[in-house]
Write a structure and sequence with these properties.
- By secondary structure, the protein is an alpha+beta fold.
- It has one domain (6-105): HIT family, subunit A, CATH 3.30.428.10.
- It contains three helices and five strands.
- The chain has helices spanning 6-11, 51-57, 59-75, and strands spanning 19-22, 26-30, 38-44, 82-85, 101-105.
- A five-stranded antiparallel β-sheet has the order 1-2-3-5-4, covered by helices on one side.
- Helix 2 (51-57) crosses helix 3.
- The chain is globular, with a radius of gyration of 13 Å.
- It starts with 5 loop residues before the first helix and ends in a 9-residue tail after the last strand.
Length: 114
């Protein structure tokens, strides 16, 4: 855990989140600025800055994270119609440097996404 990380504070219970799914290794909660009718962030409970670092240092947790995404999509009634986004780095608009996947759904998605 990182002392100055918002998502670590959520995992530790110091900051409230609208939690929709939790496992031993992951936490999923509603985004405070949703970009779709369903917009849930799925994070690992361990601190890693991005998905590549998570996969390198905690490959089992990376698999858990993807499984949690599938569980959230099913729970939210998205079926196989959702977008999963991992922003990596400031140029990709990552603002919290704790890996997190955005599960977006509930409406048709445009392309290109950026």
């Amino acid at each position: 855990m990182s002392d100055d990380c918002l998502f670590c504070a959520m995992v530790g219970g110091q900051v409230q989140a609208d939690v929709v799914h939790e496992t031993d290794t992951t936490l999923a909660f509603r985004d405070i600025n949703p970009q779709a009718p369903t917009h849930v962030l799925v994070i690992p409970k361990v601190h890693q800055p991005n998905f590549a670092a998570l996969a390198q240092h905690e490959p089992g947790v990376a698999v858990d994270l993807v499984n949690a995404v599938a569980a959230v999509a099913a729970q939210e009634g998205l079926g196989e119609n959702y977008r999963l986004v991992f922003n990596t780095g400031p140029d990709a608009h990552q603002t919290v440097f704790h890996v997190h996947g955005h599960v977006l759904g509930g409406r048709p998605m445009g392309w290109p996404p950026g």
